[in-house]
Amino acid sequence: MDHTIDRRALVKGALGVAAASLLTACGGGGSSSGGGGVSNAGRSLTPWPAYVPFDGPKPDVPGDASGVQPLYLKYPETLVQSVNNAVGDGSVVKALVVSFAAPPKPVGENRYWQAINKALNVDLQVTVVPDPEYGQKMTTLMASGSDLPDIIMFTNLALPHAAEFVQARCADLSEFVGGDAIKQYPNLANLPTHAWKGMGRIGGKIYGIPLERPKPGNSLFVNRTALQEAGIPKDWTAEQYLAAMKELTGGRKWGVGWFKTLFGGLSAAAFHAGSYGAPNTWSAAGGQFTSTIATPQFEQGLEMMRKLVEAKAYYPDSLSVSSSDMQSYFHNGTVASIHDGFGSTNLTTLTKINGRFELDLGRPYGPRATPWQSAGIFGYVTFKKAPADRIRLLLRISDYLSAPFGTKEYELANYGVEGEHFTKDADGIKTTDLYAQENNSTLPTRYLGQAPTVIHLPGYPDVAKAVHDWEKAILPNSVASPADGLRSATAVSKGAQMGQIVGDGIAAITFGRKPLSAWKDIVAQWRQAGGDQVADELAKEHAANQ
What we know:
alpha+beta; globular
C-alpha cells in the first residue's frame, strides 16, 4: 500500500466515492441524457484502453481477477526501468492539483521537486489548491475564459457542468489512449480497466487519465487485539456482530465509532446494507435503475445501526465529534471499530496506532453479503487542448508518474532521492526527516499520474497479510455500482439537496429521532427531489454503454 497517500484524501476518495454515489448516483458531471452534449447515449463509443499488466517483481502472494491486490512483504531488491525514452523537451508545464497537506517548499529549495523536474525534463510549475478551497477554485477556473494550465486534476467532487467544461476546453484523448493506442504508454496501459470505467466517457470519448484506487470501498476497521481477547471470531453472524459491539463497550470504551460527517454516516450505512445483501447504490435490471435505499436490505442495515445505538455501543456524542477526533479515538483504543476509506490501511494509520493493538478489517456479517466496491478512482487528470505533440508530452508525464511498484520511476515519484529523502535496509524503505517536508503529498505529483496500488506495509508484515486475507474473503462476493462512470444531469444539479435528505434521514433513524417506519417517507422525499429522474437518466446511459 502506498504509505504516502494522505488519510483525508482517501476518506474523500475511496469513502467519498461510495457516499457520493449513494446520494447522487454518479461521480461525474452531466447533461440531459438524450443523446447530445456529454451524454453517451446514441454516441459512437471509444473503446476502453487495452490492459497490459506490468511484468515486474514477483509478489509474495499474487492478486487475482476479483480485485485482490498483490502482496509484497518486502521491498524489491532489484528495481526495473519502465521508461526508457525522453519524457519532456525542457519546456514549462503548468499543472493544477488539489492538496491535503502543507504547501510545498519553493522549487529552488525543494530537492524532491528538482529531482522530478530533472527526470521529466520539464519545468513543472504546480498550482497547489488546498482541499477546502478546491471547489471554489475549480468553479472559478471553469467559468473564466482565461488560459488554462496544461494539466488539470479533477477529484470525485461533483462539480456542476464539469463534464461540459472538459468536453469544451480539454483535449479529447481518444486517439491517443483508446484501444491499443494506449500501448505507446506502458505504465498507463497497466491501469486496470475498472479505473477507466470508473472515470467514464464524455460524449462517447475519453478525456482523462484515471487516478486508480483498489476495488475495496468503505471498510470496517477493527481493533483485532480487543476482538480476540473477547473471543470474537473473524467470521460472524449479525447476532454475533451486535453481541461483540456490546461486549467491547464499557469502562470508557465503546464498540463503534461514528463520524459526525455525512460521509461517515453513509460509510456505516453502506457496510451494514452490504452485510445484508443490498445492491451497491443502485441495481440495474430489466432496463431500469432502482436505488439501494429503497430495498429491504438497506432498511435492515439501518435497523442494525439503530440497535447499536440502543445498546449504547456507539461512542456518545458521535454526531458532534469530528472525523479526525473519532479516528484518534480508534487509534488510541477508545473505540474498537470505525468505518473509514479502505486506503487508511497505510503506514500513517499504523504509526498513529503505535503498537497499541493489531489492526485488521472487519468482514461483513450476513450469509448473503454483497460488500460494496469503490468506483475504482480518486479522480482523473485532463489536458488543455493543444497540438498532438504537446498532448503526447503530457501523456508521457502521466505515464512516468504512473510507473508501478517495483520500478525506479515509482521509487522516485513516491519516495524521492535515495540518501536524501530515504534510505534502505533489510526492511526496505526508511524515510528521512527531509522526506517529511518534501514528498508527493506536499507537491502532489501523485495527482498527475498514479500507479495501481499494491499491499506493502514495511515493518508490519502481519497487518499486510491480514489485509490480503480480508480481500480474499470479501472481494469474490463484492459488487460494483452500475452507475460508476455514468452521466446524470439531475445527480449533479440536485445532488446536494438529495444527499441532505438521505444523510439527515440516516442520522434521525439511527439515533432514534424518527422510527424505522419513517424511512419509506424519506425515500419518497428523495425520489420526488430528483431520485426518479436520476434513475431514468442512468438507465439510458447504462444502455448506451453496454
